[in-house]
Design brief:
Strand 5 and strand 6 form a beta hairpin. By secondary structure, the chain is an all-beta fold.
Length: 115
């Protein structure tokens, strides 16, 4: 059974940075296109960024130029470097395959951008 564990969230001031990590158990990580998603209170869960097994990336317009997704297929880990954070980036951030698999959702990690 695959398990995903997100970490690295926290409280940061506007303009600050955070680096999220997603650890994935199991040997199938390297073949999947993976993604970061986020869900703000009262809103739907949206895709933030995706990365293919070969490293090709794609981003939501709202984070282009500020966020960078990466992965380490040896460590079975995916990352999201978030710079120039804005209050509207406040959300719970999740990782999953892309498209997402229902039984892969983890607990997420809270990111709060506030002064």
């Amino acid at each position: 059974q695959v398990q995903l564990v997100e970490s690295g969230g926290g409280l940061v001031q506007p303009g600050g940075s955070l680096r999220l990590s997603c650890g994935v158990s199991g040997s199938m990580f390297s073949i999947y296109r993976m993604g970061w998603y986020r869900q703000a209170p009262g809103k739907q869960r949206d895709m933030v960024a995706t990365i293919t097994s070969g490293g090709r990336t794609d981003y939501a317009d709202s984070v282009k130029g500020r966020f960078t997704i990466s992965r380490d297929n040896v460590k079975n880990t995916m990352y999201l470097q978030m710079n120039s954070l804005k209050p509207e980036d406040t959300a719970v951030y999740y990782c999953n395959a892309f498209p997402p698999l229902g039984d892969w959702w983890g607990q997420g990690t809270q990111v709060t951008v506030s002064s």
